[in-house]
Design a protein that fits this description.
Radius of gyration: 25 Å
Number of strands: 7
Order of helices and strands: HHHHHHHEHEHEEHEEEH
Distance between the termini: 38 Å
Strand content: 5-15%
CATH architecture of the largest domain: 3-Layer(aba) Sandwich
Helix content: 55-70%
Largest sheet: 7 strands, mixed
CATH class of the largest domain: Alpha Beta
CATH topology of the largest domain: YojJ-like (1
Number of domains: 2
Strand order of the largest sheet: 2-4-3-1-5-6-7
CATH superfamily of the largest domain: DNA integrity scanning protein, DisA, N-terminal domain
Number of helices: 11
Amino acid sequence: MNNLADFWNSIKSILYQLPKIEPSDVIEIILIAVVIYQLIKWLRGTRAWSLFKGLVVLFAIYIFAMMFNLSTILWLFANTLSVGIIAVIIVFQPELRRALEQLGRRNIFKSISFLDDHSSLTDRITSESIYEIIQATEDMSKVKTGALIVLEQSVILDEYERTGIPVDAIISTQMLLNIFEHNTPLHDGSIIIRDNRILAATCYLPLSDNMSLSKSLGTRHRAAVGITEVSDAMVIIVSEETGFISMAIGGNLIRNVDSDYLKNKLLYAQKKNEDVKKFKIWKGRKKNAQKNN
């Protein structure tokens, strides 16, 4: 009994030593949690998400160095931290500015809803849309009509969408052929596709500075590689000179592909998004079942 009493006395002494939590502390914790949640939610929709994951890895290395007292690594972290923060601000200045603009435009109370996750469950592309894209690509290839089709994935391409002309049309072979037809107002530049809709046409994309790309490639192919270097988008290119179909993924250009290759790649992207959707729905149903129980 004495041992049990001593144990409870030790627990009480530890609890008494803890700082007293005031209502203001609870409010601060909630506000900080909301800010961190919104920051991570915003990062997942930009190319800065890759940087964030890299920073997490560096933080893990820093903790490891502290645990084992690796003085050289700790010295490097201490002397490069301030420079690194300034470099991050400079490199991602457009994203930071856009984030502040969005914060000023949006409804804050609506945006802090943790349950509003329907936008992340939308289908990126259907089998019907894939068929229409492949059919249009084949038709344009036969007559050597240049085309640049960007299929958005998880990284949102709003900044490039704004450089073009809004279309907001259903994906169809006829629509794609009309957009890229020679000497039409919308044929120059690229189109951006999101959630089975053609968002905009004549969009300007960043050009790749990859020196390993063939010098024979024109602006269309370099723009396709450039957008896949800063996002996870998939891009289909039809050459105006040769009629060859190419595809850009992850900063790589696959030249002279056939319709079967395009179909497999697009169906794989469709299946991947459907798997993510099913997992999120299952996870949500599991949470609801646990609450009901």
